[in-house]
Sequence to fold (271 residues):
Amino acid sequence: MEKVTTAVKAAFQPTAENLAFAGGLVTQLDGLVVKRKQWEATDYKKANEGLYSLLANCLDVFNSKFVNASDDDKKTLRGELKNRLTADGVRVQRNTTTLTMFVRFVFGSDRKRAHGYTYVLKAAISYDVTAASLPSWIVEQGGVEEVRKNMIVSEKALANRTALASAKAQVVANVEQASVTPLAKLNMSGVSGEYALLLAKPAPDGTVSIVGVISDINEAFYNACLVKMARVKAADNAESLALSKEGTDLLAGSSSIAANDPVNNEESLAA
Fold:
């Protein structure tokens, strides 16, 4: 019988240079931890200058050391930060951003507060705010909480725009398909133009009565109709996604219950 060889992906092994990079950066973050503790012991209840300065230090380390580092250096650093955070009882997931790790490492704060600080740094990066100008920029924006709120709104607005654009593309494709295979076709005189709008009145018996017609609708009107259809489509997509996720969660839950069912466990052991 022919022997089959299976390739096994080698685990990532950081080099001495990778470890030196990570160690040096972690040492810098340890220094910021000391500053954070000093701030909490002195200025914490009096002013925000200390907080803004610490956030600026985090941004400076992130931009100057992490962003342009090699992939292996980044992997090594993430591993070191994960080990340190996990040892402190902080849960780190595979999709946790390095910026979030920085904040959790330096501030050692609760999850909600850490996410608020991370939003501030993400906003600063998105607006090309330098570390030196970060404290004054936060003041101009109305403080950390205001920046956090605006960032959340911006991310939600971006997600909504993306969902609407996707839905509009689906609507346009459906309209083009319906031009070949119409939803319905009827004889009606006096209707002209590349597109026309029919105002229909649905009846309880499932029939539809055409009660008004607008011929020769212009491009702006046509696009407005597409946007309205896209909004409905986006809502339907969101509902379908929610139902799909709910079904997946239920299946996962039932699988977990089944796995912990004494009867099932006994049957598995017997097999």
